[in-house]
Amino acid sequence: MGGTVFLNGEFMPRSRARISPDDRGFLFGDGLYEVTPAYGGRFLALDRHLARLQRGTKELRMAFPQGLEELHRELLRRNDLEDEEMSIVYLQVTRGTAPRTHHFPDPSVPATVYAWARAFERPTREAWEKGFSAVSVVDRRWARADLKTIQLLPQVLAQQDAREGGATDALLVRDGLALEGAHNNVFFVFGDTLATHPASNQILPGITREIVLGLARENGIPVKERPVSLAEAHQAAEIFFTGTTTEVRPTVRLDGRPVGEGTVGPLTRRLQTAFLARVSRECGAAVT
Ligand code: PLP
């Protein structure tokens, strides 16, 4: 992967970017990240992504870097992504480089800020119409899943399990509850009502989740933010995952069994259409 990246105040070719082996991100996973989408070169909900990052830095007692909005725009410009149907900016902030101690560096050191941008290929309409599959996987994350930390090993293992099980998504299950995906949130349809786990320390408060909840309310679709068991999930009429790169993704098979009729359901369809209409409106790009 080439392109121009940003590291600690400078834009440079990716091949020139160097990070110290004593960076606390490398040694401890002591950092946070964000992934923000742009459609036709315009960001969707960049303010919400940066607000989530800011909350994370506060919770972890890290510095919140300045100038991130401009950094995002500049990365699109420098990588010629302003006309791309969809692109993403990845941003990572760590507690910086210092001699290894478990406690915070004393005195404190500057954060490491690393960011890159690239085009993102959305699934074809045919793939979306056919639907996707998921498998349930035990959730092995720590007790602050609401923070978007770079410590992703449980998600890496869950996603690998999904891949080896021939599925697109991993459905994370803890204490019998179907919480979210390895890199996305999950919604279920029971009757005419949508259900998704409430925002808590057990799930990441997804920006796409928030947008979809808003769209459901605007469209008069009843929503319950409540815990859903895996047993219930297996009885859902429809299931879909939401996320920055996931958008609204229909799941037509869970653990090898059909979800509902085994086809993309009507509520999923309505919300996908509403989501793309929102994207088109906010980003001024025709996205279908
Ligand atoms: N849940 C988890 C565990 C995630 O890692 C992500 C995104 O990476 C999401 C949900 C979806 O969040 P968003 O819609 O903000 O991309």
Structure description:
The protein is an alpha+beta fold. The protein has two domains: 4-119, D-amino Acid Aminotransferase, Chain A, domain 1, CATH 3.30.470; 125-283, D-amino Acid Aminotransferase, Chain A, domain 2, CATH 3.20.10.10. Helices cover 28% and strands 29% of the residues. The chain has eight helices and 15 strands. It has helices at 24-28, 46-59, 68-78, 125-130, 153-164, 207-218, 230-233, 266-283, and strands spanning 4-7, 10-13, 31-39, 42-43, 86-94, 112-119, 132-138, 169-174, 177-181, 185-190, 193-196, 223-225, 238-243, 247-254, 257-258. Strands 7, 8, 9, 10, 11, 12, 13, 14 and 15 form a nine-stranded mixed sheet that branches. Strands 2-1-6-5-3-4 form a six-stranded antiparallel sheet. The protein is globular and about 55 Å long. The site of pyridoxal-5'-phosphate (PLP) has 13 residues, from helix 6 and strand 13.
Structure summary:
28% of the residues lie in helices and 29% in strands. It has helices at residues 24-28, 46-59, 68-78, 125-130, 153-164, 207-218, 230-233, 266-283; strands at residues 4-7, 10-13, 31-39, 42-43, 86-94, 112-119, 132-138, 169-174, 177-181, 185-190, 193-196, 223-225, 238-243, 247-254, 257-258. Strands 7, 8, 9, 10, 11, 12, 13, 14 and 15 form a 9-stranded mixed beta sheet that branches. It has a 6-stranded antiparallel beta sheet with strand order 2-1-6-5-3-4.
Bound molecules: pyridoxal-5'-phosphate
- Stretches where pLDDT is under 50 for at least 5 consecutive residues are none
Largest sheet: 9 strands, mixed
Q: What's the rounded overall pLDDT mean?
A: 98
| Count of DSSP H/I helices | 8
Helix content: 25-40%
CATH architecture of the largest domain: Alpha-Beta Barrel
| CATH first level of the largest domain | Alpha Beta
| Total beta-strand segments | 15
Structural class: alpha+beta
Strand content: 25-35%
CA-based shape: globular
What is the CA-based Rg, rounded?
A: 19 Å
Q: Please provide the ordered H/E string of secondary-structure elements.
A: EEHEEHHEEHEHEEEEHEHEEEH
